[in-house]
Amino acid sequence: MKLVNKFLFVIVFLGLIFVLGCEDRTDLNQPQVPSTGQVSFERFVVLGNSLTAGYQSGSLYQSAQQYSFGKQIANLVNAKFEQPLASDPGLGSRLEIASLSPFALKVNTSQGAPINLNYAAPYNNLGIPGAFAYDILNATKTSDSYSAKAGSPNPLFDVILRGQGSQFKQAKALKPTLVFCWIGNNDILGHATSGGTIPYTDPNTFAFLWKQLADSLASLKTKVVIANIPSVTAIPFFTTVPPVTKNPANGQIIPLYGQTKTGVRALVLGQDLVTLQATSVLTDASGNPTGVGLSPSKPLPNAVVLDKDEAAAVQNVIAAYNATLSSLASTNGFALVDVNSFFNNVAKNGIVTDGLKFTTEFVNGGLFSLDGVHPTNQGYAIVANEFIKVINQKWGSNIPLVNVSTVPGSLILAKKIEKSKLDTPIIPKGILDNLLF
């Protein structure tokens, strides 16, 4: 009898182990999907230009696109997010580091190719490098884009739109539950990067185009997030080459001379801006001074100088653009990401996030890629977090921020870079000419 009782005890004991072992513990193994509050990411669409496309270092390529800010947000909320991927080294003029001592750039002359052109539906990320405000509603292919009308056709419109209509038309076809739209940078940036030699979109025209776009976005009857235009003084393209330099003969600080609309004059620190493209005329391929810019007889060309009057005009245009965007966001109930204030603060103070410090310094700052305009992978993560903060605040979401320290691919160098004899990077002539913004 005792033996039977022991046997029954063992059976019961084993049964309990079996039951406990089979207890459903799925909640311990699967990560929690964050609460998105009033926002649904079921059909999440992003419209815009290079900044939304994930473009960096002068090219559109898969290993960077996977860290576009839209994709990083989609990953956090487990949302489907199809992008127009391009194989490495990408579509465009991919910039790479040729040397650290002295620091020099080169272009990878190889070209990638589109990977998923046959994807049947519209892409979730419809951002097109080089797009203007006009293009979101009106451009359906390369030949009718704003840049084509200006004489510079951009083949990426055909690659991304694939004959299915404009960015907006394709977004509408997806019946989106959430739309991001960040557009307008190119309406002023091309003017600024050319030293004021290329026209900008008049603020009244910009307001007209964006009013049409805002009305169209509002007609979707869905959640919409827009972002404003950052200041040109917040990006390395305009801050890396100061308007003063070291005299190569004695090391003393001297002004650079530049051609302006009012004639040749000495440039002034804190007032005039010199673009990154000036490096290719200041020094030769070895980093030795060419003599250009060091005297009134050999001034920097106007195309690489944004003088104080031009810089002030650019800032006024950006302020007008942003006033339009703020008004339209308020009128239509859109969420607005103030990237202008954010980047101005980073330019002044830097930013520390997840134990990492970022600044707007060219290359060493970690925030901007080699073209001096577009963010790095980690830079796009920081942008993603600004969008998340606004969404959480406006719609009661609880989306966690991207852990920037887990995002690879920023410019981590083996040693400190050494610059040319004029304390500038060495950038061969012409390699920044084909940048898209």
Task: Please specify the SSE layout and strand pairing.
Layout: H1 2-21, H2 26-29, E1 44-48, H3 50-53, E2 59-60, H4 62-65, H5 69-76, E3 91-92, E4 94-100, E5 103-108, H6 135-138, H7 146-149, H8 156-161, H9 167-173, E6 178-182, H10 186-193, H11 203-219, E7 223-227, H12 236-239, E8 244-246, E9 253-255, E10 257-260, E11 263-266, E12 273-274, H13 279-282, E13 305-306, H14 308-332, E14 335-337, H15 339-349, E15 351-353, E16 356-358, H16 377-395
Task: Report on the biggest sheet.
Answer: 4 strands, parallel
The CATH homology group name of the largest domain: SGNH hydrolase
Structural class, from helix and strand content? alpha/beta
CATH topology of the largest domain: Rossmann fold
- CATH class designation of the largest domain: Alpha Beta
- Provide the number of structural domains: 2
Provide the β-strand percentage band: 5-15%
Named CATH architecture of the largest domain: 3-Layer(aba) Sandwich
Please, how many helices?
A: 16
Quaternary structure: single chain
Secondary structure tally: strands: 16
The separation of the N and C termini measures 87 Å
Poorly predicted regions are: 1-29
Average pLDDT, to the nearest integer? Answer: 90
- Percent range of helical residues: 25-40%
CA gyration radius, whole angstroms: 26 Å
